[in-house]
Design goal:
- The chain has 99 residues and is an alpha+beta fold.
- The chain has one domain: Ribosomal protein L30/S12 (60s Ribosomal Protein L30, Chain: A, 2-Layer Sandwich).
- Helix content is 47%, strand content 15%.
- It contains five helices and four strands, in the order αβαβαβαβα.
- Strands 1-4-2-3 form a four-stranded mixed sheet, with helices on both faces.
- Helix 3 links the parallel strand 2 and strand 3.
Length: 99
């Protein structure tokens, strides 16, 4: 996974208000989501639930190797977040991010 491209996509989504952070918010606003990014500190049961919902809705999932604090920094937010969803990513960007 290309971390610079991921950071760019996350910052762009945050600026355009197309970014949802946190498990509850991501689950609540799953409709229209194109990509979900999971941190390494997301609990296993939550990860399983998210992956199941993502599969049902044809949403790509990327596992980020950093913890929730690092994922929060990539999103330009002042708090850690274990999961992030993006709505404004193209299929091309998703394939680049998945590497």
């Amino acid at each position: 996974m290309n971390e610079k491209k991921l950071a760019k996509a996350l910052k762009e989504a945050a600026v355009n208000n197309k970014l949802k952070t946190g498990f509850k918010e991501v689950m609540q606003y799953i409709k229209g989501t194109k990509l979900i990014v999971l941190s390494s500190s997301l609990p296993h049961d939550s990860e399983t639930r998210l992956k199941k919902v993502a599969e049902e809705n044809n949403i790509e999932v990327i596992k980020y190797s950093g913890n929730s604090v690092l994922l929060g920094r990539l999103c330009s937010v002042s708090y850690g977040t274990s999961v992030v969803s993006l709505k404004n990513v193209s299929e091309e960007e998703i394939s680049e991010l998945k590497g």
